[in-house]
Amino acid sequence: MQTPARRVITTLKAPVVVPSLVVIGALLVVCGLWPQEAGEWFQSVQAWVIARFDWFYVLSVAAFLAFLVIIAMSKFGDIKLGPDDVEPDFSFLSWTAMLFAAGMGIGLMYFGVGEPMQHYLSPPSAQAGTPDAAREAMLMTFFHWGFSAWAVYGVMGLVLAYFGFRYNLPLTFRSGLYPILRERVNGWIGHAVDAFALIGTIAGIATTLGFGVMQLSAGLHEVAGWNTESTVFRIGLVVVVVGLAGLSAASGLDKGVRRLSELNLLLAILLLVFVAVTGPTSYILRALGDNIGNYLSSLVDLSFHTYAYQPPQEEGWFANWTILYWAWWVSWSPFVGMFIARISRGRTLRQFVVGVLLVPTAFNLIWMTVFGNSAIWLDTHEAGGALAQTATNVDALLFRFFDYLPLTRALSIVAIVLIGVFFVTSADSGAFVIDTIATRGAPDSPVWQRLFWAFLLGVTAVVLIVAGGLKALQAMTLISALPVTIIMLALCYGLWRGLQADQAHYSQDMAPATSFWSGQHWRFRLSRMLHRYSEADAREFIAQTVAPALENVGEELRAAGVPAQVDAGSGGSVQLTVPASGQRDFVYGAHVLIKSVPAFLPREAAEPDPERPHAYDVSVFFADGREGYIISYLRPEEIIADVLRQYERYMLLATDRRTDLLKGAPEHAGPPPTDA
Questions:
Q1: Within 10 Å of residue 546's Cβ, how many Cβ atoms?
Q2: Which residues cross the membrane (predicted)?
Q3: Which of 147, 227, 306, 499 could tie 76 with a disulfide, CB 3.0–4.6 Å?
């Protein structure tokens, strides 16, 4: 009688979770009991950091963008985020919808009208309220929400995805430091790094949730006329958003988060098209071309511009806009980067970089043009400056903008739904990310953990709303951007080293002596290649041909003093293992592979893969996750020759210093999950 599998109660890692909860609790006490004092102190520290390190933020963000472009254009761009034969977990549409919703969706709703209007009224160098001011307003808005912003998220996401899926390390912040710290990532340094990321993620999401409630309240006041200023009402909004986020998180990433993200994207596109069609359409289309051309031609200059020779007209503009944005994107990068990494398994580095940089940026630029240019045009042609008068009240500005478009009430309702769904997706994806960090990427975490983190986000937001400590926690989050930026530069260095090791490892040629087949017994070999195996045939081949061949090699190795063992696994698999100290073991294994029968008719090719006829074969697998190949047509002596061929390659790699990182990386245990 089989013993039932033990039910997992928790996968949380105490060295990461306990210190994080203690620090979050302390911050809530300080920001809740002394909100004014904490806000003043944190904001003074934030101002000090920005004033002295604005040049560092500018150069770092420019370096992140250049780094991603170099990777995409290099030979490393073909490397996959995972084993060579892995396919993407999500379709391109679902992937872009999720990274868009988790990354900047709510920001577009909040600043789509607000930022262009504020730059128009107070531009860095042009005269306020002029066509030059409008042009400069859109240029700076594009710059703040374009390639540079997504480069910050892209670097963090790429590092985590690469080391998580390619090196088989846990999908956590510390894994990106593996090339630098090696095994020390499993010690107190790694715990501290993950705890730091966990605290920053909780603080950032809770702060955004709190500020988002303010905009939702303003929208509901405009639409329904309710009194939304009360604390009780705002707490109720947090409860509703967190409750929906908990349901979404409990349903899983592939259901809840994906479906809500796709709904978000659909609603956003419908709203975008409606505003473009009912607004000043011709002006918007002309402005879009000017905006994109102006942005692309100015990108290099803006990326390195620190206003050293000619300060902006308004004192503090550079610090309060560009540097504050860079700090905010960096402070959010552990959360958004982790989420992007989680949904990007199976894509090549080039696909990742192009997708993360180009797709969201293109949508952001179109969105900002439609809403920003429309608001500026309406304010000067129809509103008589009414929007300019509301520009400082960003919470209500979007709904004031809708007053000058058809179907105002319907637009406001759609916007409220969109903002609400954006907040739900931010909260539920945040719960997934927080749980991933807290468990070191453990799979199959119990549902209650994700619900706990969603609950904690809600409690944090409620406490700060009631006590008025949101600005203090926001300032603290932005202060943390400085050490995170330094860590991200180290991550770039580690990723480059990892890619070099990867290239050296997977491009290693076979030794000339491995061309072992001379053409003998070719009829036997051909008949085996043409024979369609059943599952029983495949298992029999492993048991009667592969296993004895591996045993013969194992006996010879042991006779020579080399420890070697042959083990049978589940599904009829078998593997030869030669343990090695300080590097990956040598593994040569064989398992039953299920594959679709080749289609010879268009009708057959059009059938879904599960409905196509299937056959079985025998494929090899290795410890480093390389793609296997079919061996069911080999004779015993040829299998032995193939084992020696792989062992000789293993010995050559052991002496190649370029592959040091991969030698010690965790092994891909056992055969791939595609066996019978």
A1: 28
A2: 12-35, 55-72, 92-113, 142-165, 185-211, 231-253, 265-285, 323-340, 352-370, 410-438, 450-470, 476-496
A3: 499
